[in-house]
Every structure is written in C-alpha cells, then in structure tokens.
Write a structure and sequence with these properties.
This protein is an all-alpha fold. It has a domain at 12-59 and 81-129. Helix content is 56%, strand content 3%. The chain has 3 helices and 2 strands; from the N terminus they run ββααα. It has helices at 24-61, 83-106, 111-129; strands at residues 12-13, 20-21. The radius of gyration is 20 Å and the shape is elongated. This is Copper transport protein. It is a multi-pass membrane protein. It comes from Trapa natans (Water chestnut).
Length: 145
C-alpha cells in the first residue's frame, strides 16, 4: 500500500516495482542516485539556458526581413532554425522528463528521498545556476518547471 504521509524507513519502492530497497546499503545507494539525478537536472537546466541565450543572440544578429508584406505578422514568419535552438529544445525535453521523474520519486513520501532530492537540487543550483549576470532567466523553484 502506498504511503500518503511522510515516513522514515529504509523500505522504499521508487518509481517502479523492481526498484525496492530493503537494507541500508540499497537505501543509501538509492538516495545517492536521487541526489546525483537532481544535481544533473540543474546542470541540464544551466546548459539549456545558455544554449537558449546563444540561440537568441544568434537570432538577433540575423538581418530583419523586409516588410514587403505588412499583413504577415512577425509571429507567423518562418525563422531560421539553428543548431543551438534545436539543442535547447532537446535539452528542455530531457530536463522536463528528469524533473517529472524526480517529482514522482518525491511522491513516494519517503523522508530520505525527499531530503536527498532537495539537497541535490540545492547543490546543483549552487554549482551551476547561481551566477546569472549575463543570462536573464525566469527562476522557478519547482524541479519540473
């Protein structure tokens, strides 16, 4: 039966039925995987924001098309796709998937898993995303945003 309140135990089922812990070594390894995964999530977000910044600066350097057809708005014009933009889109998909898996892991309601993921997100933010002088970004405390 699934827990609906926060509990503290080494017996955890995480994400799939085959990922069960029943001893301290397996539990600690699971917590380490959760912390590393959440730190990696912050790394991917840093790379994605940097690629988005590079793609937008490359798009600003392109000449503006002539306004021969004023009825077509800027939103409808087809913009050239560069590799930085494609990589940014791919990283968004990957980081979203990892973020939602982290959210589902927290929904196991195990206190150690919760603390491990929050610690990993905090460490990853401190290492990778704390210095944003030149990159404007919308900050979100949610792992899956």
């Amino acid at each position: 039966m699934m827990h609906m309140t926060l509990y503290w135990s080494v017996k955890v089922t995480l994400l799939v039925d085959r990922w069960r812990t029943d001893s301290w070594p397996s539990y600690l390894l699971t917590l380490l995987v959760c912390a590393v995964s959440s730190t990696f999530y912050q790394y991917l977000e840093d790379r994605r924001l940097r690629l988005r910044s590079a793609a937008s600066s490359a798009a600003r350097d392109l000449p503006e098309p002539s306004s021969a057809s004023p009825l077509i708005s800027k939103a409808i014009r087809i913009r050239p796709v560069n590799s930085a933009k494609l990589a940014s889109v791919a990283l968004f998909g990957l980081s979203s998937a990892i973020g939602y898996l982290l959210m589902l892991a927290i929904m196991s309601f195990n206190g150690g898993v919760f603390l491990s993921i929050v610690s990993g997100l905090t460490i990853g933010y401190g290492i990778f995303r704390c210095d944003y002088e030149e990159i404007p970004a919308v900050e979100s405390p949610c792992a899956c945003a």
